[in-house]
Every structure is written in structure tokens, then in C-alpha cells.
Design goal:
10 helices; Rossmann fold; about 230 residues; six-stranded parallel sheet; alpha/beta; SIR2/SIRT2 'Small Domain'; binds ligand BV8; 8 strands; EC 2.3.1.286; 2 domains
């Protein structure tokens, strides 16, 4: 692959599965244990903030015990060595790409290590539980929520993502079911804008038909082999 090509990589929960972080749709995944409308919407937060804050406290604590896997490390190596454009757009709120050493990472659905103060709009780095309503470090108000994008909320930095897709020569999707928009629509955008498209996933996703190439298997095998 010519070293000056521009690559956009979209990752989903499947890239973190082998690190022991639940995906959303596999058997026993997050959606099964918690109904989506119960925890990942602003309405749920308004209706039952304690449930939502406890759900995210549980996930934040679980993520902090996990480690990046061979797929995260392979992408971090590619990020360090690739002289062309490269952007890892992740739907994941975990920080495993960063802990593997990747630098060019964009969290379109937010980050579990950030809180968001609804009183002063500050976005403090946050590793502790939120369910006991801690004071915002900026304004002192007990008004912190997880800084993640819920259903019905606008994903972050869509302009930057669209700009990267316009320049992309190659679009690679890793470990996502293609169930949630706008992320699930990026492959069509990339194709229409002239990029090659490759899907690396454990099973065929809802969007597989849009990819020129789909390779099936675990990310810890497929991603290092692709990066090599
Ligand atoms: C928006 C962050 C508009 C939180 C997430 C009706 C009402 C409201 C909205 C809608 C609606 N109908 C449609 C919508 C739009 C909605 C949507 O798409 N809904 C779906 C359900 C139909 N989207 C939104 O609401 C988005 N916002 O549209 O805003 C707007 C416009 C103007 C102004 C304001 C707003 C926001 C969506 C973001 C929601 N937040 N996450 C949190 O993490 O808790 S979504 C969450 O699920 C993920 O972030 C991800 O994006 C999504 C899908 O999960 P995946 O990552 O794909 O994981 P999944 O388990 O599904 O799949 C795992 C895959 O990995 C599988 O394919 C599996 O085979 C594979 N795998 C497993 N193991 C491995 C593996 N692969 C490789 N190796 C392995 N070992």
C-alpha cells in the first residue's frame, strides 16, 4: 500500500471485545443486560439519573481494569509509522486505542474518562463514580453526567470526520455491527467519494454488502495481519 495514501479507520465494540469489554449486541452484551432506552438516552437520564449514572460507573470501572489487545497495538503501530493521512474514528468510549499508543484518534461518541458539567459545560477528565453526585471541579455544582453521546444526541466532530472521508483513499471498518447511524453510513460516503473499502469483523455486519472486501475473524488476528 503506497505510504502516502490517506486512511480512515472506523472501530466499534468488536475491537475491544478480546480485551474483555462487552460489545453491545453479542450474546450477553450490554444491550441485553440493559435495555437501550433504559440507559443510553437523555430521556433515560432525565427519568432515572441514578440508574444511568450507575450503569456508566460500572462500565467506567470495568474499562479501567482492561488492557489494549493486539488489534489496538497494531493500529497504534500503523499510526506511528504511516506517513500518509490516518484517522482512527472510534465509536467506543474506552481509551484502549490511546493506551496502545495511537495518537490520531477521534471519539465520535465521547469518552468514558470525561465527565460533562451541565451547570458550567466543563468537560473534566473523570475516573471516579458519578452516581453520588460529586461536585464539578470547575463550578462546584453536583451537575456531572458522562461525556458520552446518547441516542438522539449529535455525535462529536462530524465535520472533521466528513473532511477525513473526503480525503480518504481507503476506509477500513473494524468490529462494528453497522447498526447505529451516522457511523454505519460512513462506508457509503467513503465509496461515493472514491475510497476503497475493507471490513474486518467477526461476522458479516449490516453494512457488509457496501464493502468491496470483508474479512471475517477475530480482530486480534485480522488487524495485525492487515497492518503487516
Ligand atoms: C443521531 C455511546 C441525530 C454510549 C452509542 C430513533 C430515535 C432516535 C435516534 C434514532 C432513531 N432511529 C435512528 C436513530 C439514529 C440513532 C440510531 O442509529 N439508532 C439505531 C439503533 C437505529 N443514532 C443516534 O441517535 C446517533 N445520533 O442520530 O443524532 C441528531 C441530529 C441533529 C441533532 C441531534 C441529533 C447517536 C448514536 C450514538 C449512541 N451512542 N455509544 C455508550 O457507549 O454507552 S452507540 C453504541 O452502539 C456504540 O458506540 C456503537 O456506535 C453502536 C453499535 O455498537 P458497535 O460498536 O457496532 O458494537 P456492536 O455490539 O453493535 O457490534 C460489535 C461488532 O463486533 C459485531 O458485528 C461483532 O460481530 C463484532 N465482534 C465481536 N467480537 C469481535 C468482533 N469483531 C472482531 N473481533 C472480535 N473479537
Amino acid at each position: 500500500m503506497a505510504k502516502d495514501r490517506n486512511i480512515v479507520i472506523l472501530t466499534g465494540a468488536g475491537i475491544s471485545a478480546e480485551s474483555g469489554i462487552d460489545t453491545f449486541r453479542s450474546a450477553g452484551g450490554l444491550w441485553e443486560r440493559h435495555r437501550v432506552e433504559d440507559v443510553a438516552t437523555p430521556q433515560a437520564f432525565a427519568r432515572d439519573p441514578d440508574l444511568v449514572l450507575r450503569f456508566y460507573d460500572m462500565r467506567r470501572a470495568a474499562i479501567q481494569e482492561k488492557a489494549p489487545n493486539a488489534a489496538h497495538h497494531a493500529l497504534a503501530r500503523l499510526d506511528r509509522e504511516w506517513s500518509g493521512g490516518l484517522l482512527i474514528v472510534t465509536q467506543n468510549v474506552d481509551d484502549l486505542h490511546e493506551r496502545a499508543g495511537a495518537g490520531r484518534v477521534l471519539h465520535m461518541h465521547g469518552e468514558h474518562l470525561n465527565a460533562w458539567c451541565l451547570a458550567c459545560d466543563a468537560r473534566p477528565r473523570w475516573t471516579e463514580p458519578l452516581a453520588h453526585r460529586p461536585a464539578c471541579p470547575e463550578c462546584g455544582e453536583p451537575a456531572l453526567r458522562p461525556d458520552v453521546v446518547w441516542f438522539g444526541e449529535m455525535p462529536y466532530r462530524m465535520d472533521d470526520i466528513h473532511a477525513a472521508l473526503r480525503e480518504a483513499d481507503l476506509f477500513v471498518s473494524i468490529g462494528t455491527s453497522g447498526a447505529v447511524y451516522p457511523a454505519a453510513g460512513f462506508v457509503r460516503l467513503a465509496r461515493d467519494l472514491g475510497a476503497e473499502t475493507l471490513e474486518l469483523n467477526l461476522e458479516r455486519s449490516k453494512g457488509s454488502a457496501w464493502f468491496e472486501q470483508t474479512r471475517l475473524g477475530p480482530a486480534t488476528e485480522l488487524v495485525p495481519a492487515w497492518v503487516a
